[in-house]
UniProtKB/TrEMBL annotation:
Keywords: Membrane, Transmembrane, Transmembrane helix. Pfam families: MMR_HSR1. This is G domain-containing protein. The keyword Protein transport does not apply.
Length: 568
């Protein structure tokens, strides 16, 4: 390389070292908090988001926990490259030993080789986790080196299989290892540095990992000195197009020890900082949160379930549960029971032969075991089954609750909300029936005025009976030709006759007088019963439709908060 080229590369290395030294230090506690936020996001979304969308997040949580639990004193650096890029030769040149096989046959590297600077014992658990076989682990520790290799103590350098290998197992192994290492050195050569597979298949996927990515143009010795800056500039242009602006780009050569000095300098800086593992995990968090960003949109509305929509749902459920029919039966039952308590005692028995309107619906009435025993199970009613139109109205109301609640949410949340809203539709008929049967309709007792009017009716009836009996006795005395009874007179009318006619007339008048009051009280009883029934039906709607919807919306809010915390 020319002196000018050497100075330009040296300047670049200096800038790279400055960037690695101070641009982005990752606080371990802050990183753990971000990983914890991703874990909270996964918990909040597991039942509502397709599992394939959460695969990267699950992998991050598992890998971050494992990597942080292993040695933080070691920095794992991988040399990744295509077939013929010379990465195995570069691996040997950096180690200054022939460790990884180099040959003409392709692919040469079928498994990962590792070189550890420092004692191997401290890195074994880390290498076990990465999956490097013991026979492919080497130690770069020699008494002959003195302090020459001391600056790299803690470095674990991997030579990966070729990522464009014809062997599919090699490609899969590369992809697995690239997800585990702390820093990746992409090795390209002058012939294939612009290969589309390299850029679209791998490099563009490392946009979130620019802090732990280095690109080297290997075999630079094959280029004329005048062409090297041109090729480096073109490589820089391609990396910028890949979204990897700022990523270090160096020229190396395995045949010239001096040509690896700059790369060794970057590795020494990386090892000294002990930040590569943290930066890699931070980049993983960035990549995961970026991949999940489309799952989160604006916050859910403060009134997460629209009240007007819930009211429409209650109307549909009330119609389906037969609330109008039960309320009407309640008013009729009130009239029936009021007439039985306040009517003329002579015809009360005939009225009792008529069935009670509520009992026809199998709804508990006063004096029934269901009404008196609070521990008895709620019976099924005989309320008419909902019509097809009413069932359709319930379905539309449920969909309206889901649609309005999730209108502002991104996919797949609207589908999750709809699924939650419909999750308990099969339980609605029985739940509505139990709600109607268990509602206190307010017609179980006997108001005081019923008793007063009933007592008055008995009094006038007894007066009529007494007058009738008195007249019958006088008639019997005349038949037996006994001395006639002298009836007390009430004006011009004998008292027995006045008692009989007055009792009958007063009984009819009292019955007619209380009828408007009974009608008014029956209407109030009907309205009160309808209000209580609607409240019971609304509670069923909240439990079976609104609560599942609100649960999904709360999960969305938790996921949104967690993703915001993970992205900090």
């Amino acid at each position: 390389m020319s002196a000018a080229t050497g100075r330009s590369v040296g300047d670049l290395v200096g800038k790279v070292r400055d960037r690695l030294r101070g641009d982005r230090r990752v606080d371990p506690d802050a990183l753990l908090a971000r990983v914890g936020a991703v874990e909270r996001f996964v918990r909040a979304t597991t039942d509502h988001v397709p599992e394939d969308r959460l695969g990267a997040a699950h992998t991050l949580i598992e890998r971050a926990g494992a990597r942080l639990a292993l040695s933080r004193d070691h920095t794992v650096v991988a040399l990744a490259g295509a077939t013929g890029s010379g990465k195995s030769s570069l691996f040997n040149a950096l180690a200054r030993l022939d460790l990884s096989p180099v040959g003409v046959r392709r692919p040469t590297t079928g498994v990962a080789h590792a070189c550890v600077w420092g004692p191997l014992e401290g890195a074994n658990r880390l290498l076990d986790w990465i999956g490097v076989l013991p026979r492919h682990r080497f130690v770069r520790e020699s008494a002959l080196d003195g302090d020459d290799e001391a600056a790299l103590h803690g470095l674990v350098l991997l030579d990966l299989p070729d990522f464009d290998s014809v062997e599919r197992a090699h490609r899969l192994e590369v992809e697995r290892l690239l997800g585990l290492v702390d820093l990746v050195v992409w090795v390209v050569d002058p012939q294939k540095y612009a290969d589309r597979v390299v850029h679209t298949g791998y490099l563009r996927g490392f946009q979130q990992h620019r802090d732990v990515t280095v690109v080297v143009l290997n075999q630079a010795d094959r280029l004329p000195p005048a062409d090297l800056p041109v090729v480096l500039d073109d490589l820089r242009r391609l990396l910028d197009a890949d979204g990897l602006d700022g990523v270090p780009v160096l020229a190396t050569s395995a045949v010239d020890p001096a040509a690896t000095t700059d790369l060794r300098g970057i590795l020494e800086t990386t090892v000294a900082q002990r930040q590569a593992a943290l930066r890699r995990l931070a980049g993983d968090v960035d990549a995961v949160t970026a991949g999940l960003a489309d799952l989160i949109g604006p916050p859910a509305a403060e009134d997460d379930v629209d009240r007007n929509t819930v009211r429409e749902l209650t109307d549909a459920l009330a119609a389906s549960a037969g609330v109008p029919a039960v309320a009407e039966a309640t008013g009729q039952a009130y009239r029936h029971r009021a007439a039985a308590s306040t009517g003329w005692p002579v015809v009360r028995g005939w009225r009792r032969l008529r069935p009670d309107p509520l009992r026809r619906l199998h709804l508990p009435g006063p004096g029934t075991p269901e009404a008196d025993d609070e521990t008895a199970p709620t019976p099924l009613t005989s309320v008419p089954d909902p019509t097809a139109a009413q069932r359709s109205a319930v379905g539309l109301a449920v969909r309206a609750v889901a649609a309005k609640s999730s209108a502002a949410l991104p996919a797949p949340w609207p589908a999750a909300v709809t699924t939650a809203a419909r999750s308990r539709l099969g339980d609605l008929p029985d739940a509505l029936d139990r709600a109607v049967a268990g509602t206190d309709l307010g017609v179980g007792g006997r108001p005081v005025w019923w008793r007063l009017v009933g007592g008055l009716q008995w009094l006038v009836t007894l007066a009529a009976v007494a007058g009738l009996g008195w007249l019958l006795v006088g008639y019997a005395v005349r038949i037996l030709q006994l001395p006639a009874l002298e009836y007390p007179m009430l004006g011009a009318v004998p008292l027995p006759t006045a008692l009989l006619l007055g009792g009958l007339l007063l009984g009819v008048l009292v019955a007619l007088a209380v009828r408007p009051l009974t009608s008014f009280a029956a209407r109030r009883a009907r309205a009160w019963a309808e209000s209580r029934l609607r409240a019971a039906v609304a509670e069923v709607g909240r439990e079976h439709v609104v609560a599942p919807v609100r649960s999904v919306l709360q999960a969305y809010a938790q996921a949104r908060e967690a993703l915001a915390a993970a992205g900090r």
